[in-house]
Amino acid sequence: MTMATKNETSFIGYDYQNVIVKCSMESVYTDGYTIFGWVLEETSNTISNLGSVIMKFKRDCNIRNKDELIQLQRQFEVCMSEIETMESSKATGAVVGAYLMSVIGTVSLAGSVFTYRVEVLPLSLILSVSGLACWIIPIFHYWGNRKRKMNRLVPLINQKYDEIFWTFDKANALLTE
């Protein structure tokens, strides 16, 4: 969206952009969009998306090297999207595995109760012990898998941040020409 203001001496047109980001990434987006020539006008909390913020930016529509800046900005947005995806996937696999083991434990305990009622005591004991184990083991399973996943993802996330800083350098060079 483009809008214009008129001063007594000159006419300045502005481009406007609203961006919805997670609160934890707000400062990175503020720094990023500033590098691409945007000025942060205001931020406001979203009603429908808890933990997110609406950031409102404006930029002079006659900025130098606008096409190149737009291309670099898109590259920045793609990198940020990939970082957010990697951040959210850190615990996803561990949570799914822990839930599945807990469900198996619950089914095993239910089987233990049913076998106890029909007086098959040895099978009932085996099922109850395995059910309780399947309730305790997911705790350690979750933390172990989460740590392994984090160790794998942290270098990739850092690589994406390096790519973002490279785009910042390119954009800064375009703005200071």
From TrEMBL:
<protein>
    <submittedName>
        <fullName>Uncharacterized protein</fullName>
    </submittedName>
</protein>
<keyword id="KW-0812">Transmembrane</keyword>
<keyword id="KW-0472">Membrane</keyword>
<feature type="transmembrane region" description="Helical">
    <location>
        <begin position="94"/>
        <end position="114"/>
    </location>
</feature>
<keyword id="KW-1133">Transmembrane helix</keyword>
<feature type="transmembrane region" description="Helical">
    <location>
        <begin position="120"/>
        <end position="143"/>
    </location>
</feature>
